[in-house]
Amino acid sequence: MLSERRLEVLRAIVQDYVGTEEPVGSKALTERHRLGVSPATVRNDMAVLEDEGYIAQPHTSAGRIPTDKGYRLFVDKLAGVKPLSAAERRAIQNFLDSAVDLDDVVARTVRLLAQLTRQVAVVQYPSLTRSSVRHVELLALAPARIMLVLITDTGRVEQRLVDCPVPVGETVLADLRARLNSRVVGRRFADVPPLVQDLPESFDPDDRAAVSIVLATLLETLVEETEERIMLGGAANLTRFNHDFPLTIRPVLEALEEQMVLLKLLGEDSGMTVRIGHENFHEGLNSTSVVAVGYGSGDEAVAKLGVVGPTRMDYPGTMGAVRAVARYVGQILAES
């Protein structure tokens, strides 16, 4: 266990390196921070921190910089979440409140996160598997063609075309719409299949084939694997940090182009997640950190959002911005 003083030295090194982009020396630390000890004592503390793997010397006669292990300790033990100012909170609320639908909410959230943190923003659309049915609409486009519209409690809208083997009259369509909604509205997606499996039997034999196809399309929509959608923005922000990446930012950009990589990056846990450097599973992201948190309507998260940037990151400020934006997005979904 490190002493309190050495933890303070580590905190000062992280703060100075993030702020100045320059390796930090003992003299600079004693001048900038009230550590209450001499530069010689600070040098000794830095030697211990280096031996323990929390800081490193990038080249001879230079100061020290934090390692992934040092940033991890800083995030876990030393960094609080920096709250946003009242003006920043108002700006977030006003910007997101102007959204007209779910796509607009996600697009605005991506733009907002990228601007607030000056990192790459990643927002997952609300997951269908964690959603409930708000309404199912059936629209006749032609005598034997129906548009099925599924609306979730998070405002997500899925549309499917259904080609029926025989024409479907408006009376049958209205009856199916009413019976369907009476059974599935307010239900979690996983609960829907057993609730509708006997529905075709309640219709006349001539209509059962069409009803079965409509129900099959609905159930396919509920379990579709392509439901996990991601929106990304602010990739150009990475060019501000060229010197933070060992060789080039190309591996980072290539990793961010892969949808499954982004989904794994955000993680499953709905709480605040901070993964630093080599904690990221993808080799192309070993020089980056990820800050992510779940968002949703009510107590349960329906998706995650976060940012990706270099390990030399303002963790308290980034965590505060990500958490605040997630809270406002959840409020919008709850009120939609």
Walk me through what this model shows:
This protein has 12 helices and 10 strands. It is 45% helix and 17% strand. By secondary structure, it is α+β, with helices and mostly antiparallel strands. It has helices spanning 4-20, 26-32, 39-51, 68-78, 86-97, 102-117, 170-184, 192-196, 205-223, 250-256, 259-266, 315-335, and strands at residues 55-56, 65-66, 120-124, 133-142, 145-152, 157-163, 230-233, 273-276, 288-295, 303-310.
Q: What percentage of the residues does DSSP assign to strands (E)?
A: 15-25%
Order of strands in the sheet with most strands: 7-3-10-9-8
Number of helices, where a helix is a run of at least 4 consecutive DSSP H or I residues: 12
Radius of gyration computed on alpha carbons: 26 Å
Q: Would you tell me the overall average pLDDT?
A: 87
Largest sheet: number of strands, sense, barrel closure: 5 strands, antiparallel
Helix percent band: 40-55%
Terminus-to-terminus distance: 49 Å
Assign an overall shape: elongated
Structural class: alpha+beta
Order of helices and strands: HHHEEHHHEEEEHHHEHHEEEH
- Quantity of strands, as a count: 10
Question: pLDDT under 50 segments (min length 5)?
Answer: none
Core attributes:
336 residues, 10 strands, three-stranded antiparallel β-sheet, five-stranded antiparallel β-sheet, alpha+beta
List the helices and strands and how they pair.
Elements: H1 4-20, H2 26-32, H3 39-51, E1 55-56, E2 65-66, H4 68-78, H5 86-97, H6 102-117, E3 120-124, E4 133-142, E5 145-152, E6 157-163, H7 170-184, H8 192-196, H9 205-223, E7 230-233, H10 250-256, H11 259-266, E8 273-276, E9 288-295, E10 303-310, H12 315-335
